[in-house]
Amino acid sequence: MTEAGIGQALAAVLERPEVAAGEAVPAGTGRAHIPARSDAEAVALWLVEYRGSPHTQRAYRREAERLLLWLADRGMALAEMRREHLDAFEAFLGDPRPRERWVGPTRPRRDPRWRPFRGPLSPASRRQSLVILQGLFAWLGEAGWLDHNPFRLMRDKRRRLDNRQGRVERYLERPLWDWLWGWLDHQPAPETSPRARFERERRRLAFGFAYLLAPRIGEMAAARMNDFRPREGRWWWHTVGKGGKAASIPVPPDMRRLLGEWRGALGLPPEPRPDEATPVLRGLDGHRGLGENRLYRLIRQTFREAAEALEDRLGAEAAREAALLRRATPHWLRHTALTHQAQAGVELRYLAETARHSRLDTTARYLHAEEAEWHRQQSRHGLSATPARAVQWPQHSEEAP
User: Fold this and answer.
1) Residues 6+ apart with CB under 8 A from 92
2) Residues contacting residue 78 through CB under 8 Å, at least 6 positions apart
3) Which of 18, 92, 146, 283 could form a disulfide with 140 if both were Cys (CB 3.0 to 4.6 A apart)?
4) What integer pLDDT is reported at residue 51 of this predicted model?
5) For residue 22, is it left (φ>0), alpha (ψ between -120 and 50) or beta?
6) Which are the contacts of 168, defined by CB distance < 8 A and separation ≥ 6?
7) CA 401, CA 115: separation in Å to the nearest integer?
8) CA–CA separation, 330 and 303 (whole Å)
9) SS3 sequence of the chain
10) How many Å apart are CA 130 and CA 122, to the nearest integer?
11) Per-residue pLDDT averaged across 312-331, rounded?
């Protein structure tokens, strides 16, 4: 199946699961228990199981589609996957070549310039991809579509598929964040056009929202004005996030101020009404909601412009920081928010509520304070300052101790 055909098959089943109806044609030796006629339709039916969690479904589709495209490039089907192919695919995720075929900037899926990767995947991302695909193969085996699961042959499966990670590293350290916010928050010149002023306020709101409330990008794009509500004199942001989990997050004063300023730019009063189910982030017309892909591109573009501005001001002195800004993605803002909250002393239980993590050990990855203290104490241990010629060697007895 061609690259376009794979995408169309996935989209068709996700939009209308009944399109795969018909006699099942299993890829393995048994009879399939799902109405699929191709690998792409079988995978799409697996993805339908996650329709209640759109964010998870999008992430799983991305990884499954990468595998299907990799197999199609080699003229293979899912049933032909063997143990050695898992190693080859993992290596490919870390270095997708040829680059011009596999790697490119974010574009709509139907755009001919769309590519499956924005760059090589980190070890953690490769591990996550294998975790997702292991679930896919297990499901397809239960569905009778496959009679062999190569993941079951991985001797080091526990290590390879253990997706627990160490400390979070993809975040902006406090000095860099302070500089970035100062750059975003600068007052526009008097001659600035109305459109440029609107875009400035939108960027401030997007980055401030991401930093102060630690949302995922899909949650930001889906936010409505009346998701911000007062209760007993305090303001809360109500959202439904990953896994369909509903949450209420405290809104700090700076977020209320930013939201009020943004609403002022839209010609609205500072506080949203209870019936105001309109988008928070909007397009240039001031009404249409800003989609997740557009928001992603806006934040990435802002990071790139900030990197250029930083280099213009400080030159080579800021080369490391500028490189970080160019690498940064919207999810870095969530990591930055949670890390800085932890550094500010927010208790782990409240940090976990803000992050909406089901496990405290996931949230604990943002706690860098112990590392700093460890580093401080370790610095007491150093090389001797006494000249070698002045050292008095201990006298040893001839007798064994």
Assistant:
1) 70
2) 27, 39, 42, 43, 68, 71, 137, 140, 145, 146
3) 146
4) 84
5) left
6) 335, 338, 339, 365, 366
7) 71
8) 9
9) CCHHHHHHHHHHHHHCHHHHCCCCCCCCCCCCCCCCCCHHHHHHHHHHCCCCCHHHHHHHHHHHHHHHHHHHHCCCCHHHCCHHHHHHHHHHHHCCCCHHHHECCCCCCCCCCCCCECCCCCHHHHHHHHHHHHHHHHHHHHCCCCCCCHHHHCCCHHHHCCCCCCCCCCCCCHHHHHHHHHHHCCCCCCCCCHHHHHHHHHHHHHHHHHHHHCCCHHHHHHCEHHHEEEECCEEEEEEECHHHCEEEEECCHHHHHHHHHHHHHCCCCCCCCCCCCCECCECCCCCCECCHHHHHHHHHHHHHHHHHHHHHHHHHHHHHHHHHHHHCCHHHHHHHHHHHHHHCCCCHHHHHHHHCCCCHHHHHHHCCHHHHHHHHHHCCCCCCCCCHHHCCCCCCCCCCC
10) 13
11) 91
Say if CB 161 and CB 137 are below 8 A apart. Answer: no
- In total, the chain counts a number of residues equal to 401
Residue 373 has pLDDT above 80, yes or no: no
- Asked if 32 and 24 touch (Cβ cutoff 8 Å), the reply is yes
Which amino acid does the sequence have at 195? R
pLDDT in tens, 172-208: 998 999 999 999 999 888 899 999 999 999 999 999 9
Least confident of 26-35, 127-136, 309-318: 26-35
Look up tokens 């406090």; give the residue. 174
Rounded Cα gap, residues 302 and 183, in angstroms: 11
Residues 138, 126: Cα–Cα separation, whole Å: 18
Q: Residue written as tokens 């573009």?
A: 301
Question: The whole model's pTM is what?
Answer: 0.60
Residues whose CB is less than 8 angstroms from the CB of residue 102 and which lie 6 or more positions away in sequence, other chains included: 96, 115, 116, 117
Distance of CA 218 to the CA centre of its chain: 10
Residue type, 190: P
Residue in the block written with tokens 């496990």: 359
Cα–Cα distance, 50 to 387 (Å, whole number): 68
Query: Which of 71-75, 156-160, 257-261 shows the lowest per-residue confidence on average (mean pLDDT)?
Result: 156-160
85 Cβ neighbours under 8 A, 6+ residues apart: 76, 150
Q: What is the dihedral of CA 113, 116, 117, 122, to 10 degrees?
A: 180
